[in-house]
Design a protein that fits this description.
Layout (H helix, E strand, L loop, with lengths): L1 H13 L24 H14 L6 H41 L5 H22 L4 H12 L10 E4 L1 H6 L8 E4 L8 E4 L4 E4 L1 H17 L2
Parallel strand pairs: 1-2
Antiparallel strand pairs: 1-3, 3-4
Helix pairs in contact: 4-7
Length: about 220
């Protein structure tokens, strides 16, 4: 009994404590290896790899977006052109309406009369003298001469008298440079009678003046 205790005490003195390496106690329950990376480091590595990788290009989607952009730009251009054309039409219409503003009736009548007279004068001035019509006018006016009127005479432009050479008028012809071509004036003891373009223009003016005075 005594020997066993002594041996046990001596045996205990012969053994030295041995340190256990390779493992450390984790703050949490259990153990983990010293060579295992921290979870945050793994996440950062994955994100860096994804950022370095080139994005995959969808050709169909890219073509669709390009077509949409072109269509939108074309629509804007057409709309702008249509708006500009509408603005021009409205401006011309406004100018036309302004030119059609009502004018006083007297002013309008005067303008119309002057226009008609000017056109007739232009036409008369451009028409050549018709010898047959000139002879007819002379005969018509000469019919007013009485048989015993020796003072009766027809006044005509000198060029018209030349045209009447060889014609049987039956009355004395007097050249008068104051007369317009195609006009004849018969002077008698009782007065005078005139016919020709100037006379008819005067009648036209009188008729137009009378129309201007009507309400």
């Amino acid at each position: 009994m005594t020997l066993s205790r002594i041996w046990g005490a001596e045996a205990a003195r012969d053994f030295a404590p041995v340190a256990v390496a390779g493992f450390v106690q984790s703050e949490s329950s259990g153990f983990r290896s010293l060579y295992t990376a921290h979870p945050g480091a793994q996440t950062a590595t994955i994100r860096a790899a994804m950022a370095d990788a080139e994005p995959v290009v969808d050709l169909v989607e890219e073509a669709r977006m390009e077509a949409f952009t072109l269509g939108f730009d074309e629509g804007c251009r057409i709309t702008a052109e249509a708006h500009g054309a509408d603005a021009d039409i409205r401006e011309r219409l406004a100018e036309s309406l302004a030119s059609l503003a009502p004018a006083p009736s007297g002013m309008l009548s005067t303008m119309l009369s002057a226009t008609v007279v000017r056109l007739v004068e232009q036409i008369v001035g451009e028409v050549e003298i018709d010898i047959e019509r000139l002879v007819q006018r002379c005969d018509t006016v000469a019919a007013f001469i009485e048989d015993n009127d020796e003072k009766g005479a027809l006044h005509l432009h000198p060029d018209d008298i030349i045209m009447l050479e060889g014609e049987q008028i039956g009355v004395k012809l007097v050249p008068d440079k104051a007369m317009q071509r195609g006009c004849v004036r018969l002077e008698t003891a009782e007065g005078w009678v005139e016919d020709g373009p100037d006379v008819r223009l005067s009648r036209l003016r009188a008729l137009l003046d009378d129309m201007e005075g009507r309400p």
